[in-house]
Structures are given as C-alpha cells and as structure tokens.
Amino acid sequence: MNTSKVTALRSVTVAPERKRFSILKGIVILFLSVLVVTQVYPLLWLILYSFKTNEEILSGSFFALPQSPQWINYSSAFTSGNYLRYLWNSFFVTSVTMSSVIMLSSLAAFAISRFRWRYGQVVLLLFLVGMMIPMQATLLPLMIIFKNMHILNTHLSIILPYIAFSTPISVFILNGFMKTIPYEIEESAIMDGAGIFRVYWNIILPVSVPPIMTVCILTFITIWNEYILAATFISAERLKTLPFGVNSFVSQYSVNYGAIGAFLVLGALPVIVIYFLLADKITQGMVAGAVKG
Fold this sequence. Notes:
Layout: H1 2-50, H2 54-58, H3 72-79, H4 83-114, H5 120-130, H6 139-149, H7 156-178, H8 183-191, H9 196-207, H10 209-224, H11 228-233, H12 257-277, H13 279-292
Helix pairs in contact: 1-12, 3-12, 4-5, 4-7, 4-10, 5-7, 7-10, 7-13, 8-9, 10-13
C-alpha cells in the first residue's frame, strides 16, 4: 500500500516537470527557428536576386523565382566589376591586418595575463577603452595625420586604422583565455632554461590556438566588409577593395541590380566558406575566453 502511494506521488510530481520541460524546449526551438529564418533568408533572397533581370527585381515580387536565370550577371560581376582586382586587394589588406593583429594582441595579452606587474589591469583597461571609440570620430584626424605622413591613398592608410580598431577586442579575448593557462607550465620551461619569448612562442601561443582562430574570423569579417575608412582614404582605382565593386554597376541614368546582386554573392562567398570551415574553432575560442576567464 505504501509503495503504491509513493509511486503515485512520483508520477504526479514528474508529470508537471516533463510538461514544463517540453514547453520550454518548444519555446527555445521556436526562437531558434525564427533566428535561423531571419539570418538565412537574406542570403537566399540575395542569391535569387542575383539571377533576376531589372524588370523582375523592380516588379516587387521578392519571393518569386527568376523566370530565366541570368548567368550574365555573374559574368558582368567578373568583368565590369573588376572582381579579381578588388578581391586581391581585399585579401592583401585583410591578411596583413590579421597577421599584425594576431601578433600584437597575443603579445599584449601575454604580457597582461602572464606577467605579475602592477599596471597590468590598467593597460587592459586602456585597451577596453579603445573598444568604445567610434570609427567615424577618427576620420578627420586620421586624414590630416596620413596626409602629413604622405601615406594617404595607399593600402597602409587603411591597414593601420584596421589594426588599431581590431586589436582591443582581440586582446580582450586572448587575455581571458591566457589567464586560465596554469603557471606551472611556463615555470617548468623557465627552469629548463627557456626565455620569455620561447615560452610565448612554444608554449602559450600553441595552447591559445582556439581563441586565436576566433580573433582571425572576427577580424576577417570586419575588415572584409569595411567601407567607410576605405572610401575615405583610398581614391585610386587599382587600390580599392571588394565593397567598391558595387559602384561599377551604378551610372548616372541606370543601375544593373542583377549584377550588383551577383557581385555581393561573390563578395560574401569567401566569408561564408571560411566561417563554416572554422565555426567549431570560433565557438570553442569564445567559450574558453568568456567562461574560464
């Protein structure tokens, strides 16, 4: 008799918990579904957009499939849009910026997190303050500085600001991870005769690969899509980056919307490919820097 009562009580208490869990799970699935739709739909719409004619685009039928795929839009993106030239310029600027940001931010994070000195947190605070400075507020001072340095209208004039604006968040991510590395590892290496730079290069840097990959992707996406600084400091056609290719299809009296869509798809393709290849590294690096740090 007592056993049956206990079983009944357990069934009564477990049922509401299961119901509450199922409702919560349904809400989470619904939220994630809405998030996926809002994130994926613009990309799918852009792909459809790139295969349409101007008449189909201007008709306002956003969900309609193209009557006849306009592959000529992609050929126009390659030829009239100078895609390969702009692609090379973007790769050059982005790769130089990423390499510099990784080296500078990893060294700064190493010094802040691993050295026991009085002003470590003050230096970290200065980097965090750098994250709060809007890019637009620096355009005029940088224009004057670069003009006096005679580097205006060169790739260096955009690489330097890119490094300056990407380094603070990179230091923040790497510092959070490096603080979790046990001090015994580098102490044993120092006892074996390793110097500071060797500890950094052979021990700390290899262990910090996940957050470094996160820094790489965040920097890549930010620099790849940046337009304001490049439009301000670059005027030579041969030095312009990928976002400028859209202007090739806009004239005084007409706009080739289909070619613009094709160019945007081609411009987003490298970012999408790299992101999906390294998505697990991004998640791992962000969790390591945020939770453990």
